[in-house]
Amino acid sequence: MIDSAPECDRLAESVPDTGGVYLVPAFTGLGAPYWDMYARGCVVGMTRGTSRAHFARAVLESIAYQVTDLMTAMRQDAGCEISVLRVDGGASVSDVMMQFQADLLRIPVDRPAMVETTAFGAAALAGLAAGVWQSMDEVRAARRSERVFTPQREQYECEEIYRGWKRAVNCACGWVEK
């Protein structure tokens, strides 16, 4: 369907939304907060008008929905609000996904200039041991934001599409008969 991750992003940006399509990537079950090992991946909401672009956008949005599920659980467990989400890794280079994430969570999503922070973390630890940095505060100061995404969509719209996600998850849950 696509040849590269950047192509997925370009396709997703070419449409304003998924056209009602939801992908639940429960290929080996669903982890937190659902904990359903019998769930399986599914795509719902497809019509004759569904294009590759709608599907690509649904793929990216599925990641943001899963993060939203986890952040909601974390907020409840911690009993406090989370004021910003700092992201990293390959998927964080997707502007459309990061904007969607900010819209869903209703908080800023902060993407660093260096998205490969796992590699930087290993280098930072080596640098601390070798005396390149004297403290963790110096390492923290090395982080620079490349872009901060703030919520743009109306909250009611985000709540409506999130309800659709929950309906799609319900379709995936318990798929494998015990």
Structural commentary:
Helix 1 packs across helix 2 and helix 2 (52-78) crosses helix 3. The two termini are 33 Å apart. The strands form two sheets. This protein has a three-stranded mixed β-sheet. Strands 1-2 form a two-stranded antiparallel ribbon. The chain has six helices and five strands; from the N terminus they run αββαβαβααβα. By secondary structure, it is mostly helical. The longest helix has 27 residues, at 52-78. It has one domain (5-172): 2-Layer Sandwich (Nucleotidyltransferase, domain 5), CATH 3.30.420. The chain is globular. The protein has helices spanning 5-13, 52-78, 95-105, 117-130, 136-141, 155-172; strands at 22-24, 42-44, 85-86, 109-112, 145-149.
| Helix and strand pattern | HEEHEHEHHEH
Task: Bin the strand percentage.
Answer: 5-15%
- Helix amount: 40-55%
For this structure, the quaternary state is: single chain
Number of E strands: 5
User: In order across it, which strands form the biggest sheet?
Assistant: 3-4-5
Give the number of domains: 1
| Cα end-to-end separation | 33 Å
Tally of DSSP helical segments: 6
What is the CATH class? Alpha Beta
Would you tell me which CATH topology applies? Nucleotidyltransferase, domain 5
Topology overview:
Layout: H1 5-13, E1 22-24, E2 42-44, H2 52-78, E3 85-86, H3 95-105, E4 109-112, H4 117-130, H5 136-141, E5 145-149, H6 155-172
Parallel strand pairs: 3-4
Antiparallel strand pairs: 1-2, 4-5
Give structural attributes.
mainly alpha, globular, 178 residues, two-stranded antiparallel sheet, 6 helices, 10% strand
